[in-house]
C-alpha cells in the first residue's frame, strides 16, 4: 500500500513539521476572526448608538445635553422636543435662547434638514434651516466669548437655505408696537471660494441686502451691500441709535482687479466715504469719516472733525497682513504688521500714535503724547515693546513735564503686565517751596492689568530730595483708580526757617465723573530752626504731624495737624476753599500756657483770633483774646480778657499808610474802670506819643519819645481810691508814681519813686509804702519801706543793690512786738541759664530762724531749700489777717522744678504747740510731725498728732498718677488718692483749729477712715464715734450734753446714722444726716442734717430762752444753706432788763467818710443762710423786765436770710401787767401782726389800764413798731399832760415848776409823734437826758425801785444820779482819759465811796 509506505517512510522531523502547519493556520484564523468581530462589534455599537440617539429616548438625551452646554458667552439653549430624523430632517419645538439675565428669544417651530455626519470630512452641511413665528423678548446681553476661539472659522460651511420667517420683536423692545422680521440667507464657504447672499425686512422700513462672492481661481469677486436703518426703525431701536443710517457698497471688477466704494449716511448726511479695492487679494480702503457723533469722552475729543483712514493688506489663510494710517485733528497714527485671525496671533505688529493735546479725564490734560509699540505673539502670549513720551501732563494744580516710559509689556491671556521705567524731567504741585526739588524723577516697578482691574505693588518714585513707594489699584470699567504708599522728604530748605525732613502715607483716588482726591498722613521735623524769632517762640527743633485731604473739586483740608517742640504744642484743623484759608485749633506754650487759635487768609488779608487761657500768671492774665482783621490802611486789633486788675477790653489799629509813618492808634483800652487812650508813632528814631490813663481811681500819662539817640519814657500816675476787679482784691487808697527811663546805644537808665497809702493785695495790706529806685544798665539801688494795717504792728525796711550779675537785699523790721532781722544780706547771683541763684540767707523772727537758698528763673531748673528752727507760726498773721495760729515750726523743706515746670520736693517738719485762737476760744495745743515727698507723678505724706505725751492721731496718704500739666493744686485734685486717718482724742483739739466761735465742741472723739478716689471726689470708708460730746454756743446759749454720735463714710459722704444729746430741764435732741466732702477747697462741706427736738432748751442768751419740740432740718451746699423746721414752743421767756444791758453798745448803721487811706478793709460777711421755720406757741411765752410782767401766745413764720430775716404771723397777749412810775397797768389787749413780705416791722395793737388816785388811766400803743403811736387817756377824761404829771410827778400839772412843765410838754409832743416801743427812752429823749432807766430793788443796798438819770458833759465827762424817792441816792461820775482808759468815782447815801480805773477793748 503505497499510501501507508509514504507515511511510514517519513522521519521524525518531517512528521512534526507536517503537524505544526495546520496548527499555526488555526491560530491566525482565530485572531483574524476576533479582530473582525471586534471591529464589527464596534461598528455595531456605533450604529446602535446612532440608532439609539435617533430614538425618542436618544432625542430626549440630546435635548438634555444641549441644555447643559454652558459656553463662555453665557448663551443657553433649551429645546422642548425633537421630531423626525436627527440625521436628516427634524423638527425642533419650543426652542428658547437665554443669556445670563434670562430668556430673550423663543421659537415655537424650527425645521432642520442637515447632514451631521458630513462634519467628519466636509464641515458644516445644512440643507435647510427654517425658524417660524419666533419672538424677540429683549435685546440679548451676552458675555465675551472664548478668547482662544479663532476670529474666522477654519472649516467649510454649506447653508443652502436659512430663513427666519414671521419673527416678531415684542412690544417694549423697540417701542410700544410689535414688529415683524423676515430674513433669509445662503452661504457656501470652502477653500478657494466664499459665497454669502443674505437679505431681509425688519419692520416696515428697515432692509438689509448683502452679497459676497469671491473665487480667486475663477477670477471672480463681487461685493454689494444695501443697508437701511432709519431713526425709529427696528435696527435703530435694537441698537439704541439716536440717528438713522444708510450704507451702500458697490463695485465692479474681478478678483485680479476690483474697484468699489462705500458710502455711509447719517440722517441723510455723509458720515463716511471710502474707496475700496481688491487687487488679486490685496485689499485697500481709503477715505474719511466723522465718528465723533458716535463717541463720547476723551476719544470723541481726539476724533473730532473728519478722520482720514488708509489701510492696505492681504487676507490669506486667515492671516491679515498690511499697514494702516489714521489722521485726525487730535491724533495721528500708523500701524504695520500681520494678524493671524485663525490662530489669534500678532506677528511684529507695530504702531505709532501721536497726540498733540487731549483731556483723558476730568480736570486733566495731556500735551505732546507719543506711543510707539510692537505687538508680537499669540493673543494669549503677547509681548509689547513700547516707548511712551508725554511732553506735559496736567491734573488740577499738579503738572509733570518730560515724561518717558520704556519697556516690554506682556499678556498671558488673563493678565497684562507692564514693567515701569518712567522718567520725569520735572513735577510741579503748585508749591513754590517744593516744586524746584521735584526734578529728575524716576518711577519703577511693575503694573498688572486683568479683566477690568489694574494692580501695581512696590512702585518706587525717586527724586533727588524725595522718594516714595506705593501701590496702585484701578478699575477701567468705572474709570476709578487709587494710589497709596509712603513718601519721604529729606533736607527741604525753607527760607528763613530751616531744613525740614519728613514722611507721609498717601492715598490718591480718581474716577470718571468724580473729582480726584488725595489723602495723606504726614510727620516731619525741622532739626535746626534758623529763624531767631521762631526759635525763641517754639524752640530750636520743631516736630509736626497731621493729615491733609484735597481734591479736584473740593477744598484742601488739614486735619489733626500737630506741632510739637520744646516750648510749643499745637493742634490745628483747617482748609483752603475758593482762595480762602481758614485754620482753627488749640495748643499750649511753656511761657504763655494753653490757647486756641482761629485764623483765615483771603483776598482782603489775614485774619486771626487767639485766646490765651493763662498767658502770664504773674499778671493774672486769663482768657485773653486778641483778634486781628485787615483795615483800609493796616490792621484792626481787638483784645479782651481778664487780669489781676480785672477785665480788660480794647480796640487798637495798626496803621501803615503808603508813604506815611506807621502808627498804633489806641482808640480805647479799658482795664476794669480805667481807660487808656493815645497814639504811638513808630518812626526810624523810635516810638513817640502819649498814653493817657483816666478813670477807676487812676489819672496820669505815659509819654514815649525819641531822646538823645534812643528811646525815652516818662511815667506820671496818681491813684486815689482806686479799686480793681480781679479775683484777688487789689486797692490803692492813695498813690503817686513817677518814673523816667532812657534806652540808647545799648544802655538803659531807669529812675522812679512811689509813695502810697492803703495798698491791698488779697489778704496783704500795707497802710503806708514808699519806694525809690535808680538803675543804669541793671545796676543801682532800690529802697522799699512799708507798714501793715493800723494796729497790726508790722513795719519793714528793704534795701536792695543791683549789679550786673548780683543782687543784694537787706531787710529789717518788726511784727507783733517781735523783731524781723537778717544777720547778713541776701545775695542773688546771675546764672548762665538766665536765672538767679539765692545764696544761703538767714531770716530771724522772735526766737526762730529760717535759712533759705535755691535757684529760680531762666531756662534751668528751679530749686528751693528752706530750713526752719522754732519759727513762730504767728508770723502768718502778717499775711492773713486774724489767722490766729500759735506754736513754732522746725524742719527742712526742699522744693524743685525741672524745665517742664513740674514741681518736686520733700518736707520734714515738726510743729510744737500748734493752736489757733478765735474771738473767744483757743484750741488745745497739739504737736504735729509731718513728712512729705512730692515727685513728678505722686505725693506721699505721713503725719502724727500728739497731745502732751499721748499719741492722738496719725495720717498717711499717697496721691499718684498726677497729670503732667496744670497748677499743683489742680494736679493734686486730679490724682488718685489713697490715705488712712486715725484719731482718738479730745474733739476740741481739732474743732478749735477751725476757729469757729459760733459753737464749741468738746469731749472724746474717735475717727477711723480710709480714703480713695481723688481730692476733688474722695471715696471714704470708715467710721466716726463718740459717747460724751458737749456742744455749746455762746451766741445762742445752747448747751447739749452727753452727745453720742455714730457715723460711717461712704464715698465722699459722711453718714451720721445717729446722734443724740440732752439739754437742761430733761430735754433731748436726736437726729441723723449726711456731710459730703466733695470739692473741698472750692466750697465748704455739703450737709443735710435732720434733727428732732423734744422739750429741748436750745436758746438761752441775751435775756432770751426757748424750749422747743419738733423737727429741724439743716441743708447746705457748701456755700450757703437753709434752716427749716416746724416747731412747737413749749416755753419761752424774754427778760427785757438783761437785753437792755447787752444793748449798751448798739449796732448802728453808719457810713464812714474821709476814712484815712491807711485803714485796712474789714472782712466781708459770710454767705447768708435761708430761714424756713414755722413756730407755734399756744402760751407760756413770758416777757418780763422793765416793769413788764406778761405771757403771750404766738404763731409765726421765720423766712428770709440771715442778712435779711423776715417774720410772718401774729402774737397775742394771754395775760400781763406793766408797772410805770409806781403805777401798775393791766394788759387788757395785745396783738402783734408780722408781715413776711417786708423787713421786720410788726403792726401793734396794745391796750393797758390802771387806776390811780381815783383816776382810770388807759395807755394805747398802735401803728408799726418802728413808728408807733402812744396815747394816754383817763376816766374821768383829762388832758395827756395832766395824766403824765400825775403819773410822773405825783401831782397836778399846776403844782409843777416852770422847768418841769416845759419838759413835760416836750414829752407829750414826743409821745404823740411816735418814737418806738419804749416809752422810757422816749421820755429820756424828750426831757433832754442821755440816759433814763428804771433800776430794780436791791435789799443789800436797802434800795427800792429807783430811777437813774444820766447826762454827758462834753466828750469826756459823764454823771449819773440814782434815787428811789425813799431816802436812797447815789451819784456816779466817769472821766474818759482815752478811748480805752476811764476813771470812775461813786458816792452813795449808805456811805460807799470808790475811785477806780477801767480799761476796755473792742475785739
UniProtKB/TrEMBL annotation:
Main location (coarse class): membrane
TM helices/strands, residue ranges: 34-53
A Pfam family: TamB
Places the protein is found: Membrane
Family annotation (InterPro entries): TamB_C
Membrane topology recorded in Swiss-Prot or TrEMBL: Single-pass membrane protein
One GO BP annotation of this record: protein secretion
Keyword Transmembrane helix: yes
Gene Ontology cellular-component annotations: plasma membrane; TAM protein secretion complex
Coiled coil: none
UniProt keywords, alphabetically: Membrane, Transmembrane, Transmembrane helix
Stretches for region Disordered: 1-22
Superkingdom of source: Bacteria
PANTHER family, per the entry: TRANSLOCATION AND ASSEMBLY MODULE SUBUNIT TAMB
Stated name of the protein: Translocation and assembly module TamB C-terminal domain-containing protein
The organism of origin for this protein: Pelagerythrobacter marensis
Classification lineage: Bacteria, Pseudomonadati, Pseudomonadota, Alphaproteobacteria, Sphingomonadales
Amino acid at each position: 500500500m503505497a499510501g501507508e509506505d509514504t507515511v511510514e517512510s517519513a522521519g521524525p522531523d518531517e512528521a512534526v513539521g507536517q503537524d505544526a502547519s495546520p496548527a499555526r493556520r488555526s491560530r491566525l484564523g482565530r485572531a483574524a476572526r476576533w479582530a473582525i468581530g471586534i471591529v464589527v462589534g464596534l461598528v455595531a455599537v456605533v450604529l446602535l448608538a446612532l440608532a439609539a440617539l435617533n430614538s425618542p429616548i436618544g432625542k430626549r438625551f440630546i435635548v438634555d445635553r444641549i441644555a447643559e452646554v454652558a459656553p463662555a458667552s453665557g448663551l443657553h439653549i433649551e429645546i422642548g422636543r425633537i421630531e423626525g430624523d436627527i440625521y436628516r430632517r427634524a423638527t425642533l419645538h419650543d426652542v428658547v435662547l437665554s443669556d445670563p439675565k434670562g430668556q430673550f428669544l423663543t421659537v415655537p417651530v424650527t425645521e432642520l434638514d442637515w447632514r451631521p455626519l458630513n462634519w467628519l470630512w466636509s464641515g458644516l452641511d445644512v440643507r435647510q434651516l427654517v425658524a417660524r413665528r419666533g419672538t424677540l423678548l429683549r435685546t440679548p446681553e451676552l458675555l465675551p466669548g472664548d478668547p482662544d476661539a479663532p476670529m474666522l472659522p477654519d472649516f467649510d460651511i454649506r447653508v443652502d437655505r436659512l430663513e427666519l420667517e414671521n419673527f416678531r420683536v415684542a412690544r417694549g423692545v423697540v417701542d410700544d408696537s410689535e414688529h415683524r422680521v423676515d430674513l433669509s440667507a445662503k452661504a457656501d464657504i470652502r477653500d478657494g471660494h466664499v459665497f454669502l447672499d443674505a437679505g431681509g425686512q425688519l419692520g416696515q422700513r428697515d432692509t438689509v441686502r448683502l452679497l459676497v462672492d469671491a473665487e480667486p481661481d475663477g477670477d471672480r469677486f463681487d461685493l454689494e451691500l444695501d443697508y437701511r436703518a432709519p431713526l425709529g426703525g427696528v435696527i435703530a431701536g435694537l441698537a439704541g441709535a439716536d440717528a438713522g443710517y444708510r450704507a451702500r457698497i458697490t463695485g465692479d471688477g474681478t478678483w485680479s482687479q476690483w474697484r468699489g466704494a462705500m458710502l455711509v449716511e447719517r440722517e441723510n448726511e455723509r458720515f463716511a466715504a471710502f474707496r475700496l479695492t481688491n487687487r488679486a487679494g490685496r485689499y485697500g480702503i481709503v477715505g474719511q469719516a466723522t465718528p465723533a457723533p458716535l463717541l463720547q469722552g476723551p476719544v470723541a475729543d481726539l476724533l473730532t472733525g473728519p478722520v482720514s483712514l488708509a489701510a492696505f493688506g492681504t487676507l490669506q489663510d486667515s492671516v491679515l497682513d498690511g499697514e494702516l494710517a489714521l489722521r485726525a485733528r487730535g491724533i495721528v497714527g500708523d500701524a504695520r504688521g500681520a494678524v493671524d485671525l485663525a490662530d489669534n496671533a500678532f506677528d511684529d505688529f507695530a504702531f505709532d500714535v501721536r497726540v498733540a493735546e487731549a483731556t483723558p479725564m476730568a480736570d486733566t490734560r495731556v500735551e505732546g503724547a507719543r506711543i510707539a509699540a510692537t505687538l508680537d505673539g499669540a493673543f494669549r502670549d503677547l509681548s509689547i515693546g513700547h516707548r511712551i513720551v508725554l511732553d506735559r501732563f496736567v491734573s488740577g494744580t499738579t503738572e509733570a513735564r518730560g515724561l518717558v516710559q520704556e519697556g516690554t509689556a506682556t499678556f498671558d491671556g488673563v493678565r497684562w503686565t507692564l514693567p515701569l521705567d518712567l522718567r520725569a524731567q520735572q513735577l510741579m504741585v503748585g508749591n513754590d517751596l517744593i516744586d524746584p526739588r521735584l526734578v529728575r524723577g524716576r518711577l519703577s516697578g511693575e503694573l498688572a492689568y486683568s479683566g477690568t482691574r489694574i494692580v501695581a505693588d512696590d512702585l518706587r518714585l525717586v527724586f533727588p530730595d524725595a522718594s516714595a513707594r506705593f501701590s496702585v489699584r484701578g478699575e477701567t470699567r468705572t474709570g476709578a483708580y487709587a494710589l497709596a504708599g509712603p513718601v519721604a522728604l529729606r533736607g527741604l530748605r525753607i527760607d528763613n526757617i530751616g531744613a525740614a525732613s519728613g514722611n507721609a502715607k498717601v492715598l490718591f483716588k480718581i474716577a470718571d465723573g468724580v473729582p480726584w482726591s488725595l489723602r495723606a498722613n504726614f510727620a516731619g521735623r525741622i532739626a535746626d530752626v534758623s529763624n531767631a524769632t521762631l526759635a525763641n517762640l517754639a524752640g530750636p527743633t520743631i516736630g509736626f504731624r497731621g493729615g491733609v485731604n484735597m481734591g479736584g473739586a473740593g477744598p484742601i483740608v488739614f486735619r489733626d495737624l500737630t506741632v510739637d517742640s520744646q516750648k510749643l504744642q499745637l493742634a490745628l484743623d483747617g482748609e483752603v476753599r475758593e482762595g480762602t484759608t481758614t485754620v482753627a485749633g488749640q495748643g499750649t506754650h511753656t511761657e504763655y500756657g494753653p490757647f486756641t487759635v482761629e485764623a483765615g487768609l483771603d483776598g482782603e488779608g489775614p485774619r486771626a483770633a487767639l485766646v490765651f487761657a493763662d498767658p502770664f500768671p504773674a499778671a493774672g492774665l486769663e482768657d485773653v483774646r486778641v483778634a486781628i482783621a485787615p483795615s483800609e490802611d493796616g490792621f484792626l486789633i481787638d483784645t479782651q480778657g481778664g487780669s489781676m486788675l480785672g477785665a480788660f477790653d480794647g480796640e487798637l489799629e495798626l496803621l501803615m499808610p503808603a508813604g506815611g509813618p506807621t502808627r498804633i492808634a489806641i482808640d480805647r483800652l479799658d482795664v476794669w474802670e480805667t481807660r487808656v487812650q493815645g497814639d504811638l508813632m513808630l518812626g526810624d528814631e523810635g516810638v513817640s506819643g502819649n498814653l493817657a490813663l483816666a478813670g477807676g481811681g487812676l489819672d496820669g500819662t505815659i509819654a514815649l519819645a525819641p531822646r538823645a539817640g534812643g528811646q525815652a519814657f516818662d511815667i506820671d500816675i496818681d491813684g486815689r481810691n482806686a479799686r480793681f476787679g480781679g479775683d484777688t482784691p487789689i486797692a490803692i487808697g492813695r498813690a503817686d508814681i513817677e518814673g523816667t527811663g532812657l534806652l540808647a546805644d545799648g544802655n538803659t537808665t531807669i529812675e522812679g519813686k512811689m509813695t502810697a497809702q492803703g495798698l491791698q493785695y488779697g489778704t496783704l495790706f500795707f497802710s503806708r509804702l514808699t519806694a525809690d529806685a535808680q538803675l543804669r544798665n541793671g545796676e543801682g539801688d532800690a529802697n522799699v519801706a512799708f507798714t501793715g494795717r493800723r494796729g497790726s504792728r508790722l513795719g519793714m525796711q528793704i534795701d536792695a543793690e543791683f549789679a550786673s550779675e548780683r543782687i543784694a537785699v537787706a531787710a529789717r523790721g518788726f511784727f507783733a512786738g517781735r523783731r524781723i532781722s537778717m544777720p547778713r544780706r541776701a545775695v542773688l547771683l546771675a546764672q548762665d541759664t538766665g536765672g538767679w541763684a539765692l545764696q544761703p540767707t538767714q531770716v530771724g523772727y522772735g526766737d526762730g530762724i529760717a535759712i533759705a537758698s535755691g535757684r529760680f528763673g531762666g531756662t534751668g531748673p528751679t530749686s528751693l531749700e528752706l530750713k526752719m528752727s522754732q519759727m513762730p507760726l504767728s508770723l502768718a498773721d502778717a499775711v492773713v489777717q486774724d489767722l490766729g495760729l500759735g506754736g513754732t515750726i522746725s524742719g527742712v523743706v526742699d522744693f524743685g522744678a525741672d524745665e517742664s515746670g513740674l514741681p518736686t520736693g520733700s518736707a520734714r517738719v515738726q510743729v510744737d504747740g500748734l493752736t489757733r485762737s478765735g474771738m473767744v476760744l483757743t484750741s488745745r495745743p497739739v504737736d504735729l510731725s509731718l513728712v512729705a515727698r512730692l515727685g513728678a507723678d505722686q505725693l506721699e505724706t505721713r503725719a502724727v498728732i500728739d497731745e502732751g505725751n499721748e499719741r492722738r492721731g496719725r495720717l498717711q496718704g499717697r496721691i499718684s498718677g498726677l497729670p503732667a500739666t496744670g497748677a499743683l493744686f489742680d494736679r493734686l485734685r486730679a490724682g488718685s488718692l489713697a490715705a488712712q486717718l486715725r484719731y482718738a482724742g479730745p474733739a476740741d483739739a481739732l474743732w478749735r483749729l477751725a476757729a469757729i466761735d459760733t459753737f464749741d465742741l468738746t469731749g472724746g472723739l474717735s475717727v477711723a477712715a480710709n480714703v480713695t478716689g481723688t481730692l476733688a471726689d474722695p471715696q471714704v470708708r470708715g467710721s466716726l464715734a463718740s459717747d460724751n460730746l458737749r456742744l455749746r454756743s455762746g451766741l445762742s446759749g445752747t448747751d447739749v450734753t452727753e452727745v453720742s454720735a455714730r457715723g460711717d463714710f461712704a464715698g465722699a459722704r459722711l453718714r451720721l446714722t445717729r446722734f443724740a444729746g440732752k439739754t437742761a430741764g430733761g430735754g433731748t435732741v436726736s437726729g441723723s444726716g449726711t456731710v459730703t466732702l466733695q470739692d473741698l477747697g472750692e466750697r465748704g462741706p455739703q450737709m443735710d442734717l435732720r434733727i428732732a427736738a423734744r422739750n429741748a432748751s436750745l436758746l438761752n442768751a441775751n435775756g432770751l430762752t426757748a424750749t422747743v419740740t419738733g423737727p429741724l432740718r439743716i441743708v447746705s451746699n457748701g456755700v450757703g444753706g437753709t434752716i427749716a423746721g416746724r416747731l412747737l414752743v413749749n416755753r419761752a421767756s424774754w427778760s427785757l432788763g438783761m437785753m437792755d444791758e447787752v444793748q449798751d453798745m448798739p449796732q448802728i448803721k453808719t457810713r464812714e467818710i474821709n476814712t484815712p487811706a491807711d485803714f485796712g478793709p474789714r472782712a466781708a460777711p459770710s454767705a447768708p443762710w435761708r430761714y424756713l421755720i414755722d413756730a407755734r406757741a399756744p402760751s407760756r411765752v413770758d416777757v418780763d423786765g422793765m416793769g413788764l410782767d406778761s405771757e403771750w401766745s404766738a404763731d409765726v413764720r421765720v423766712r428770709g436770710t440771715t442778712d435779711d430775716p423776715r417774720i410772718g404771723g401774729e402774737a397775742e397777749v394771754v395775760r400781763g401787767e406793766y408797772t410805770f412810775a409806781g403805777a401798775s397797768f393791766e394788759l387788757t389787749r395785745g396783738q402783734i401782726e408780722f408781715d413776711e413780705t417786708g423787713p421786720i416791722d410788726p403792726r401793734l395793737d396794745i391796750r393797758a389800764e390802771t387806776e390811780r388816785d381815783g383816776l382810770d388811766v388807759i395807755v394805747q400803743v398802735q401803728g408799726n413798731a418802728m413808728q408807733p403811736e402812744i396815747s394816754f387817756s383817763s376816766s374821768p377824761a383829762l388832758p395827756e399832760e395832766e395824766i403824765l404829771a400825775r403819773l410822773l410827778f405825783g401831782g397836778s400839772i399846776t403844782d409843777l415848776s416852770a422847768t418841769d412843765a416845759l419838759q413835760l410838754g416836750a414829752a407829750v409832743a414826743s409821745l404823740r409823734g411816735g418814737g418806738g416801743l419804749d416809752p422810757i427812752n422816749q421820755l429820756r429823749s424828750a426831757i433832754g437826758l442821755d440816759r433814763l432807766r428804771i433800776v430794780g430793788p436791791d435789799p443789800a443796798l436797802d434800795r427800792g425801785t429807783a430811777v437813774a438819770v444820766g447826762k454827758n458833759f462834753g466828750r469826756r465827762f459823764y454823771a449819773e444820779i440814782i434815787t428811789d424817792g425813799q431816802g436812797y441816792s447815789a451819784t456816779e461820775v466817769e472821766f474818759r482819759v482815752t478811748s480805752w482808759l476811764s476813771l470812775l468815782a461813786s458816792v452813795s447815801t449808805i456811805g460807799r465811796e470808790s475811785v477806780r480805773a477801767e480799761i476796755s477793748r473792742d475785739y
